[in-house]
Amino acid sequence: MEFVALNHQVKMPLLGLGVFQIPDTECEKVVLEAIAKGYRLIDTAQMYGNEAGVGRAVNKTSVPREELFITTKVWFSNAGEQRARASVEKSLQKMGLDYLDLVLVHQPFNDYYGTYRALEAMHQEGKIRTIGVSNFYPDRLADMLAFHQIPPVVNQIEMHPFFQRQHDLEFMQEHKVQPQAWSPFAEGQKDIFNHPVLQKIAHKHHKSPAQVILRWITQKGVVALFKSAKIERITENAQIFDFHLDTEDFAQIATMDTRQSVFLDHRTPQGLEYLRTIPFNA
Questions:
Q1: Distance between CA 193 and CA 213 in Å, rounded?
Q2: What residues does the NADP-dependent oxidoreductase domain cover (predicted)?
Q3: More confident residue, 279 or 73
């Protein structure tokens, strides 16, 4: 596994398992299998409804806690300084953990300023090692960077060959914010695994299109977070650090960029309205 050093020297793996849409009843088993295969970064969220399953796995594994990197995110219905703090305390309780390695503001909506102040305080108390945001475009990220005592260390964004986010990545690099990529496979949309560009590169390197995508992301210095409950895919996806894409490969993948989300645009009213339809009771 390769790592990146965050801006205060905390190390984070370049590849991690996301557990979105994995039921809590299955999550413990999947996370334990991933840890056994060498994964150390596990990404969950309050909205996923499976923090407890992640926590059970962390507490059962023989891998020392300090070798794991556990992330959760505060949903916007828990926004505001007091509500956010209480929600993170509840997340810690659900997971049976004394601290979290990373907590993110999940969406750029509601009182995300108050939420972030709560994360700053819990970071200073040692309950959260690093703090950041998720789904923040450069304008709102610039706002967060300008007016907070502790700048966001991480910004987790949608990123895949159809939505490559080059401007966002350049802005984050300039301001020392570590990007993470969620949905690197675009949830299989547009028949991504059979795309001729990816098929050609995969054949060239004797790898799968999924491995090519993950290597493309990690070679950019971006942390890749994929979701799978299948052990064979979890195993395959770990095998990406024994090859490198070359300049020609990168140029070919660049032609796939549509510069548009395949899910939603967080800058539009429609994006917010869609997110408000997602059930959340925690």
A1: 9
A2: 21-255
A3: 73
Structure tokens at 46: 């309050």
Q: Tokens 């493309």 map to which residue?
A: 216
CATH fold of 3-276? TIM Barrel (3.20.20)
Q: Over the stretch 202-228, which tens digit does the pLDDT of each residue have?
A: 999 999 999 999 999 999 999 999 999
Q: Known catalytic residues?
A: 48
Helix (H) or strand (E) run with residue 88 in it: helix 81-95
Buried b / exposed e over 247-260, threshold 16 CB at 10 Å, is: eebeebbeebeeee
Mean pLDDT of 239-244: 97
Instruction: Provide the pLDDT confidence category of residue 8 given band limits of 50, 70 and 90.
Output: low
Rounded Cα distance, 138 and 119, in Å: 20
Rounded Cα distance, 235 and 258, in Å: 30
Strand partners, 181: 157, 224
Residue whose C-alpha is closest to residue 109's, from 282, 264, 261: 264
Among 16, 18, 14, which residue's Cα sits nearest to residue 229? 18
Q: How far from the centroid of its chain's Cα atoms is residue 186's Cα?
A: 14
Are 216 and 253 a contacting pair, CB within 8 Å? yes
Residue 172: pLDDT above 90?
yes
Q: What is the pLDDT of residue 9?
A: 75
Q: What are the Cα distances from residue 43, in Å, to 73, 101, 184, 238, 253?
A: 9, 10, 14, 16, 26
Tell me which residue of 57, 47, 2 sits closest to 25, measured CA to CA: 57
